[in-house]
Amino acid sequence: MRASLIQIAVDRDESIDSRRQRVAALVREQRGADLVVLPELWPVGAFAYESFEAEAEPLDGPTHDAMAKAASDAGVWLHAGSVVERGHEGRLYNTSLVYSPDGRLVSVYRKIHRFGFDKGEAVMMAAGEDLVTVRLPGTTLGLATCYDLRFPELFRGLVDAGAEVLVVPAGWPERRRAHWTLLARARAVENQAYVLACGTAGTHAGVEQAGHSIVVDPWGEVLVEAGAAEETLTVDLDPAKPSLTREQFPALKDRRLGLDAPRH
Hints:
Distance between the termini: 51 Å
Number of strands: 15
CATH class: Alpha Beta
CATH topology: Nitrilase/N-carbamoyl-D-aminoacid amidohydrolase
Structural class: alpha/beta
CATH superfamily: Carbon-nitrogen hydrolase
Helix content: 25-40%
Strand order of the largest sheet: 6-5-4-3-1-15
Number of domains: 1
CATH architecture: 4-Layer Sandwich
Oligomer: single chain
Shape: globular
């Protein structure tokens, strides 16, 4: 399975409409790949909180239109990163969109763990409630977004649901880049799964982005890693490797659940 991660640079001098068309062209250039992955909130910028309300869109909004056509034109499975979604009830969500090679929107994932503590995304957006997997020919994707990477129980749930490739679009800040790499490798090792972590380049609302998108194999080995600027990573994955790794080193079978709380 050939996967391409497109590390998009977000520049405030570029209009959102222009960026949509530019990113769609980048997706079309990946014809021949099986899976293409984009970063979190690349249309508006993950830290551009002041723009979330104005730029929110429905699931069938302009980003959907551009990405559906790009996926169809390229003939790829496309994880189109995430958008600021305005739900039917008017609430905002950080929502990932996944398209089939014929351009159908086949899955959405609303980010469960919202970043910001008592400001920004954490107070502006509603939390998703559902774990989401997507079946591709030969493998199953498990979906997570950025801050989710810090919560291992989410990934355990995805593995229990059959995930073998964990896809994590992000808008991760440069000042915590060491955590980004460490956590991506940890999620791969503990779940014996591929991790495809696709970040942004550039600066969002004054927050420098880490870039350094990364693909990690089920043994925790880094297969490919980007630099800080806009870049496309392409890597060939063996769909059989997660199950083979789990057979060779069956740590997941030794999990013990339902342990009693410690006594004082």
